[in-house]
Amino acid sequence: MSSNFYKKLGEKIKLLRNNLNLSREKFAELADMNAYYLGEIERGEKKASIDTLMKICKVLKINLNELINLVFN
Question: How far, in Å, CA of 22 to CA of 18, rounded?
Fold first, then answer.
């Protein structure tokens, strides 16, 4: 995957997080992950594993397929 994909993915995650009115710190806590790492994912600086994306999707209440489709639409 290109770095452009990860940048778009991060932007979508941040948008959805903001739509839930959750701070990065609170979202990371709910997803059982580090807030700094979440920020890196949102900025497209780090590539998230499938396990991490599943944690993110659980908090967002969407499935992984829906998240990926948002990136391409």
Answer: 6
Q: What is the pTM of this model?
A: 0.93
12-49 b/e (C-beta count within 10 Å ≥ 16 → b): bbbebbeeeebeeeebbebbebeeeebbebbebebebe
At 23-64, the pLDDT tens digits run 999 999 999 999 999 999 999 999 999 999 999 999 999 999
CATH for the 3-72 domain, from 2.120.10.30, 1.10.260.40, 2.40.50.100, 1.20.120.680: 1.10.260.40
